Automatic annotation (TrEMBL):
It catalyses: (R)-2-hydroxyglutarate + NAD(+) = 2-oxoglutarate + NADH + H(+); (2R)-3-phosphoglycerate + NAD(+) = 3-phosphooxypyruvate + NADH + H(+). One of its GO terms (molecular function) is phosphoglycerate dehydrogenase activity. Belongs to the D-isomer specific 2-hydroxyacid dehydrogenase family. This is D-3-phosphoglycerate dehydrogenase. Catalyzes the reversible oxidation of 3-phospho-D-glycerate to 3-phosphonooxypyruvate, the first step of the phosphorylated L-serine biosynthesis pathway. Also catalyzes the reversible oxidation of 2-hydroxyglutarate to 2-oxoglutarate.
Length: 310
């Protein structure tokens, strides 16, 4: 019988599908060396964002046929090495779209109404209504960087809340932007005219530190920036300095250059930053969607059927 290793926590719905065709071992929290030591036993590997499938792991993976990432990106997999070794890499491009979009929207509203700090204040025994005067998003400008699946949903909801939507995405047509009620602009205009900026682009060589001291300096003094896409798209040092000096209204981050977030100056900032531990895809619905989507692809490959590669 084929053997599948599940090395991050994935929904039971996926495990059930895999168990129909394979022996499934769930071993989470493995170090690179531990994973490298056991990977030769396995025909398939199922992961989320926690497991780093490095070149070293792949070199040792002599029986591996498929790696399935129960999520959107495959940036924690050394895809080039996998391809060289004939290992298929698959993912779930749509299973957590709504979850990630809703997390970004929740971040926007949490920033505008100071919800995390007001909550902490009440739980701390206070009844302070003066410190938490918010601002409405209605009639404000939302700048969406990346008008793909998640960015489009955020734009539609923003529009429904009465926001004006600017978008920057060099790969999207004017026609598509018009359909979504967005005005396509260049990144500088988006940064200088938006009240809220939300990032929905992949992390690539082109987008690493795309948002840096220069772009942050273009933001309006009250504007806020949200990153529920990938760590490393915003230069964290530049963001820290910008927030510390009070040059922008705030930031909300779900993703970090290095995860899990270790010691970081970002943790020292006050109520102008909201930090969540990569929760964008963490809804019950999304976890079922991505687990089923990826488990079905792994099952098919183990049964000798063609794969849909990431
Ligand atoms: P998508 O592929 O549908 O959309 C990405 C968009 O970014 C595309 O329209 C593309 O044209 C655009 N883009 C690419 N390079 C760009 C650039 N240099 N400048 C501007 N636009 C650029 O992807 P998606 O499903 O919408 O996901 C967006 C991001 O969200 C990905 O990085 C994904 O990994 C991340 N994500 C995070 C979580 C989370 O848990 N926080 C969950 C799901 C997805
Ligand atoms: C994804 O790419 O789908 C997300 O980062 C979610 C995750 O892996 O938890």
């Amino acid at each position: 019988m084929a053997k599948v290793l599940v090395s991050d926590s994935v929904d039971e719905a996926g495990i059930k599908i895999l168990s129909q065709v394979a022996q499934v071992d769930i071993k989470t929290g493995l170090s690179e060396d531990e994973l490298t030591a056991i990977i030769p036993e396995y025909d398939a590997l199922m992961i989320r964002s926690g497991t780093k499938v490095t070149e070293k792991v792949i070199q040792a993976a002599d029986n591996l046929k498929i790696i399935g990432r129960a999520g959107v990106g495959v940036d924690n997999v050394h895809v080039a090495s996998a391809t060289r070794k004939g290992i298929v890499v698959v993912n779930s491009p749509e299973g957590n779209t709504i979850a990630a979009a809703e997390h970004a929207l929740a971040m926007m509203l949490s920033l505008s109404r100071h919800i995390p700090d007001a909550n902490q204040s009440v739980k701390g025994g206070k009844w302070d209504r003066k410190s938490y005067i918010g601002s409405e998003v209605y009639k404000k400008t939302l700048g969406v960087v990346g008008l793909g699946k998640i960015g489009s949903h955020v734009a539609k909801v923003g529009k429904a809340m009465g926001m004006k939507i600017l978008a920057y995405d060099p790969f999207i047509s004017q026609e598509r932007a018009n359909q979504l009620g967005c005005t396509l602009v260049d990144l500088d205009i988006l940064f200088s005219e938006s009240d809220y900026i939300t990032l929905h682009i992949p992390k690539t060589k082109e987008t690493a530190n795309l948002i840096n001291a220069q772009s942050l300096a273009k933001m309006k003094p009250h504007a806020r920036i949200i990153n529920c896409a990938r760590g490393g798209i915003i230069d964290e040092d530049a963001l820290y300095e910008t927030l510390k000096e009070g040059k922008i209204g705030g930031a909300a981050l779900d993703v970090f250059a290095s995860e899990p977030l270790g010691e970081s100056k970002l943790r020292e900032l006050g109520n102008n930053i909201i930090l969540t531990p990569h929760l964008g895809a963490s809804t019950a619905e999304a976890q079922v969607n991505v687990a089923i989507d990826v488990a079905e692809q792994i099952r098919d490959v183990l049964l000798g059927l063609p794969a849909r590669s990431a």
